[in-house]
């Protein structure tokens, strides 16, 4: 039951990112959320939303398949693989990647607290 809910939350969050809807995106993220990749860059929720709001980061595609969802009490982990495409400060990008997001349940709401992304092969 909770696994299906977390899968839906992840896919709905992807849709809000693809739509560049910062208000909707923020609803899925805890204030402490961070995203990081293998190159060591860490981006906070506030930084990420500001990049989208300013137009420096524009997503045109968030096409991911959820591979696995695990729930451990009030903690959930979602692993997905797919394509993130868009524009970064005027440069087009398209990345095939694997991502793992940790969610916590607070006040009966699942919120993302940490996302890790890495390049993937098809």
Question: Can you put this structure into words, describing what you see?
Answer:
With 122 residues, the chain is α+β, with helices and mostly antiparallel strands. It has a single domain (2-119), classed as Nuclear Transport Factor 2, Chain: A (Roll). Helix content is 26%, strand content 57%. It has helices at residues 2-18, 22-26, 45-54, and strands at 29-37, 42-44, 57-72, 75-88, 91-106, 109-119. Strands 2-1-6-5-4-3 form a six-stranded mixed β-sheet, with helices on one face. A hairpin with a 4-residue loop joins strand 1 and strand 2 (42-44). The model has no long low-confidence stretch (mean pLDDT 97).
What is this structure, in a nutshell?
The chain is α+β, with helices and mostly antiparallel strands. The protein is built from three helices and six strands. It has a single domain, classed as Nuclear Transport Factor 2, Chain: A.
Task: Give the arrangement of secondary structure elements.
Layout (H helix, E strand, L loop, with lengths): L1 H17 L3 H5 L2 E9 L4 E3 H10 L2 E16 L2 E14 L2 E16 L2 E11 L3
Parallel strand pairs: 1-6
Antiparallel strand pairs: 1-2, 3-4, 4-5, 5-6
Salient structural properties:
122 residues, alpha+beta, Nuclear Transport Factor 2, Chain: A, six-stranded mixed beta sheet, 3 helices, 6 strands, 57% strand, globular
- The coarse overall form would be globular
Main β-sheet description: 6 strands, mixed
Number of discrete helical segments: 3
- Average pLDDT taken over every residue: 97
CATH topology: Nuclear Transport Factor 2, Chain: A
**Number of DSSP strands?**
6
State the share of residues found in helices, binned by percent. 25-40%
The secondary structure category is alpha+beta
Supply the CATH architecture: Roll
Poorly predicted tracts of residues: none
Strand content: over 45%
Question: Regarding CATH, which class?
Answer: Alpha Beta
Strand order across the biggest sheet?
A: 2-1-6-5-4-3
Spell out the helices and strands N to C: HHEEHEEEE
Give the count of structural domains: 1
């Amino acid at each position: 039951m909770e696994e299906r809910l977390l899968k839906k939350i992840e896919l709905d969050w992807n849709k809000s990112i693809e739509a560049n809807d910062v208000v909707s995106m923020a609803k899925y993220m805890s204030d402490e959320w961070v995203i990081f990749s293998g190159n060591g860059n860490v981006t906070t929720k506030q930084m990420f939303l500001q990049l989208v709001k300013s137009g420096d980061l524009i997503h045109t595609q968030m096409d991911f398949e959820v591979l696995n969802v695990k729930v451990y009490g009030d903690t959930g982990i979602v692993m997905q693989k797919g394509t993130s495409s868009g524009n970064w400060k005027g440069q087009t990008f398209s990345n095939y990647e694997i991502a793992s997001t940790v969610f916590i349940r607070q006040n009966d709401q699942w919120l993302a607290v940490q996302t890790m992304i890495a390049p993937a092969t098809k």
